[in-house]
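Predict fold of Spore coat protein; 69 aa.
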Amino acid sequence: MEQQTFAPAETMQLHELLNFKTICMTTSKMMEGVVFDQELKALLEKDVRLSIPAINDLQGLLGKAPKLR
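Predicted 3D structure, encoded as tokens:
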């Protein structure tokens, strides 16, 4: 069976998505410590909790991508 890979442009887009998602999650995690509103704090915690599997999925997809030089 033929192995599926990504085009170089798709690989770069995956990198961009992974970077964006990681930055967003890091920001949410850092803001949890300085936010006093409980609703906002709950939203930030939910964002972090949901971001972790999304980041893992993106990393898994990048594992299938060809190595760029």
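The helical segments are 8-32, 38-63.
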